[in-house]
Every structure is written in structure tokens, then in C-alpha cells.
Amino acid sequence: MKSTKAANRYAQSLLDLAKENGELDRVKDDMMLVRDTVAASKDLALMLTSPIIKSEVKKKVIESIFSSSVTNLSMMFLHLLADKGRERMLEDIADAFINLYRYEKGIINAEVVSAVPMSAEWKADLAAAFAKTGKSIEFTESVDPSLLGGLRVKVGDQLIDATLRRKLNELKQEISN
């Protein structure tokens, strides 16, 4: 998701309001639900970005989807976005909020790709390694059998490639030189 200045401003406002009301964790869960719902439904995403559909209609759709699942604070925020004509930015704002929440809580998001599913022991070892930095970690985990073995961990713009495939490629390069 691209992050715009406007999305960040709305997300920061929601974060400040959620902290003030003591609902930060619940609003984060709401924004994850909103982001995932919009990302999972092309029809919903198209409807939110359509200039043809009026804001009132979009507001009713948003309310029918989320009113029973999110807090009152989050619902009021979604209404505000629709009233301001910012519903097309809903996914970006939710994503920006989640990033701000993680920063606020000192949570690092790591994308881990492994050749086989990670065991609980692997996850605990990786979390312990990150705990030394004073931050907690959230894993986004995927499996890529072509790695042959090992892990590839991406944290922010840093990539740690400890895969067997990379090591074999390095060995191949050394032999060819």
C-alpha cells in the first residue's frame, strides 16, 4: 500500500484519539479488519474509489459491512472519512494506522520466508534474537520450497538471506571464477 500524507494525517489523528480514549488496541484490531476486508474484496475497493457512486451510498455500505464488527470510535471515524469524501483512501489510512501503532508499541514487522513451515521453536529463537533490540516482533510467514533450506528475513528495507539456495549460488559463483 502506498502511504500518502493525507492517509498518515488521518491515521495519526485516529491514533491520538484512540490513545486518549484508551481504545488503542481495539482500534488497531478494527483497522486490521478494515484493511483486510478492503484488500480481499475487489468489488468493495472499486466501489470505494468510484467517483460515480455517491458518498452517502458508500457510507451506507461501509456501515452495513463494519457496524457490527468495529468499535463506536472506529465507526465514527469511518463515517467521518465518508463525509469528507476520503473513503477511497480507507485501505491506505488503515495501513498507515497499523504502521503507526507498531511504531508506538515498538513492534517490528518481519517477513519470514522459509523452505518449510517454521516450528514454534524457530519462531521463539527468532523472537528472542529480536528481543535483544528491545523491540517485540510480529511475523508474516510464508513458505517457498525453492529455497531448499534456511530462512530469508526482511525487516523494513533490510534483508537477511540465510538460505541454502543463496549459499549454493555463491559456491557456484566461486567455482566459476
Describe this structure in words.
This protein is of the alpha+beta class and 177 residues long. It has 2 domains: 5-103, Orthogonal Bundle (Peroxidase, domain 1), CATH 1.10.520; 107-176, no CATH class. Helices cover 60% and strands 16% of the residues. It is built from 8 helices and 4 strands. The chain has a 4-stranded mixed beta sheet with strand order 2-1-3-4. A hairpin with a 2-residue loop joins β3 and β4. α1 packs across α6 and α4 runs antiparallel to α5 (72-83). It is elongated, with a radius of gyration of 20 Å. The mean pLDDT is 88.
CATH C-level category of the largest domain: Mainly Alpha
CATH fold type of the largest domain: Peroxidase, domain 1
> Strand pairing plus helix content: what structural class?
alpha+beta
Largest pleated sheet: 4 strands, mixed
Measured between the Cα atoms of the first and last residue, the distance is 41 Å
**Percent helix range:** 55-70%
Adjacency order of strands in the biggest sheet: 2-1-3-4
SS field, number of helical segments:
8
Would you identify the CATH architecture of the largest domain?
Orthogonal Bundle
Strand content: 15-25%
What Rg do the Cα atoms give? 20 Å
Give the strand tally: 4
Write down the overall mean pLDDT.
88
Domain unit count = 2
Unreliable parts: none
CATH superfamily of the largest domain: N-terminal domain of the delta subunit of the F1F0-ATP synthase
Compressed to H and E, one letter per element, the order equals HHHHHHEHEEEH
The shape, in one word, is elongated
